[in-house]
Give the backbone structure.
Amino acid sequence: MKIEDVFTRALQGDEISLEEAIFLYDNSPVPDLLSVANTIRFRKNPERRVSWQIDRNVNYTNVCISGCKFCNFHCTLSQRGLSYTTTIEEYRQKIDELISYGGDQLLLQGGLHPHYDITFYEELFTKIKEIYPFIKLNALGPPEVWHIARLSKLTIAQTLTRLRAAGLDSLPGAGAEILSDRVRKTLSPGKPGVKAWADVMECAHKMNISTTATMVYGHIETLSERMEHLILLRDIQSRKPAESPGFRAFICWPMQIKGTKLQMSDIVLKPTAVDHLKMVAISRILLNNIPHIQASWLTIGIESAKLALHCGADDMGSIMIEENVVSAAGASNRASAKMIERAITEAGFLPWLRNQDYTPRTV
């Protein structure tokens, strides 16, 4: 196998195999890998501009039964004084603040609550939309949807149909981590497996519900499992109906483990900034049917994110007015709208504010 031959196929838009992906990641000179990914980025998104967004990540509860070893945020119902469910009054305060920043979308996530079935989410979504009809709900990752369906004795399609009727606009790619059942059984023993995650996304795509895809790497996974994850996303995207947006974007970031059960483990990987740039690049090369790649500044910092814009990424994501889960495990980076726009400009691009569907918006 020759590096140049694989790069040529990638630049032609061909699907790169698992073996080729591992070979490129392990053997290609880093500048060449990043350069090829950057070329592909401009072929997919030719203009020299980078998108960003204003939204707020609100956790409707911190009660969760998944038992993720990388999460400091969750708690059980028995932990009195720690568990909570966000009230409507708190939503009002949070949404009003979001609006004051110029935002119009909630990234609404929580945990696998043992008692909250479909009626809880229908009532919550309906109430939010009654008060703020223009607010977009980018809500519930696939594990949450699967969990709600199981509690409610509904199919995935029935669950998504009812959630959409109540106000759901799009699905985030949350809860993917590494799409390997080996990894998931170790890290998240109570979380649904790979098939459940994929089934929810494929059903959403058939229903023309827009989604994103994610990866959290740098813990106990192998390089092969990372590449298998990317190829699975590509395969799911290839099966979407032609009229469906499917996965609009892919976001990866290194796992944050400060204070978690994983921190003391000797087997946990410790990705560097170069590792992240390589992951952004290989994602752009493998995901030939997903239009956008995000730089993920929250975990890697603004300066590294600026470099990622030259390695395949074309989006800086949200200013993240609020974020609790990753921050609880050590992510301390923060950015305002001005900081995001300045970073994009300093990287040599034109910033443009977008909606969730990657159409321009103004504030």
Observations:
- The radius of gyration is 20 Å.
- The chain is about 40% helix and 15% strand.
